[in-house]
Write a structure and sequence with these properties.
Blueprint: E1 6-11, H1 14-19, E2 21-22, E3 26-27, E4 34-37, H2 40-48, E5 51-52
Antiparallel strand pairs: 1-4, 1-5, 2-3
């Protein structure tokens, strides 16, 4: 449970995690959410979409496709002209 007057926030992405820091609460940790004061700065970052009040959904990574070399182009038939 978090202290009253605070809000738990997650960075929108890893770039935001590295760049954005709260003037009082400080920077995000290496992973997971941070607890920030429920103040004007936090409200603005939530409105901007830089931080989220719910954990971001992980995007499924596409499965790697096996490599298929390109099929050779048929050579032109020298008898056709």
């Amino acid at each position: 449970m978090q202290p009253e007057g605070t809000v738990q926030v997650w960075p929108k992405n890893e770039q935001i995690r590295k760049i954005i820091r709260h003037p009082v609460a400080g920077a995000f940790g290496v992973e997971g959410p941070s607890v920030w004061p429920d103040d004007q700065y936090t409200t603005r970052r939530i409105a901007d979409g830089d931080v989220l009040t719910e954990a971001p959904k992980e995007e499924p990574k596409p499965e790697p496709q096996p490599y298929e070399p390109p099929s050779p182009e048929p050579s032109p038939d020298p008898t056709e002209e």
